[in-house]
Design a protein that fits this description.
The structure is a homodimer. The first copy, chain A, is built from four helices and seven strands. Chain A is an alpha+beta fold. In chain A, strands 1-2-3-5-6 form a five-stranded mixed β-sheet, sandwiched between helices. In chain A, strand 5 and strand 6 form a beta hairpin. The N and C termini of chain A lie far apart (29 Å).
């Protein structure tokens, strides 16, 4: 599970570098004052704090706190909060964490369907970032 | 040596968080396309890529390549390239990596004297960043 997540982070990291964005993986968050994202990526015009999920199924639940921590971190850093979903055999979709629809219980569920209808692909993320709207 | 460096990075990381800046440690650079800085710190107005050195002596040599890699990374990310020097029993001084004076051999030497005369203290780094000039 951990290795799959790490592989996905590295894959995405290289995708950014291959498109002349800088990207780093954040070191273990154990000793951090605030839970941190998995990746930070940017170029002169954009800065993204990214939580990555690589999943086999078509749906992933997020606790309310996980999304709040990502958006709080991003607000302090001055970055956009991005959920990067990698679906097996389908690929990456990117969602604005601040515009995820909330479940009745306050948590979040990101499905493949939501990702396809409301998310954007990598090419759009890096080329037309301003269009990232749910 | 490694532990001392890690302790210094964590100390600086907490200094940023305590002043409402976000800061993260960069995960091991082994698999990175480009050598990466130790820390990335920022708030809404500033973004810093930081190489940390914690030393017992009053002088530290940097290879030309090390400084070039830091400034190249910073340019791609859109951050300022900062050398953070921690001298035992004296504390932190911060220098703009792009304005370090070059040795005749093309490398760099950052002394305590240079750090005190041309660097700035943490309080200045976070409050008056625009004044960071060698």
């Amino acid at each position: 599970m951990k290795n799959k997540g790490t592989r996905a982070e590295r894959e995405l990291l290289h995708m950014f570098w291959n498109n002349n964005w800088a990207c780093i993986r954040v070191a273990g968050s154990g000793s951090m004052p605030l839970p941190s994202p998995d990746l930070i990526a940017g170029n002169k015009d954009n800065l993204l704090a990214i939580e990555c999920k690589s999943i086999k199924n078509n749906s992933k639940n997020f606790q309310k706190e996980e999304i709040e921590q990502l958006t709080t971190f991003s607000d302090i850093l001055g970055a956009e909060a991005i959920i990067a979903m990698r679906f097996d055999n389908i690929g990456w979709h990117f969602l604005n964490a601040k515009e995820l629809p909330k479940n009745k219980n306050g948590n979040y569920t990101v499905t493949l369907k939501l990702s396809q209808s409301k998310g954007i692909k990598f090419e759009e993320l890096i080329k037309q970032f301003k269009q990232l709207k749910l």
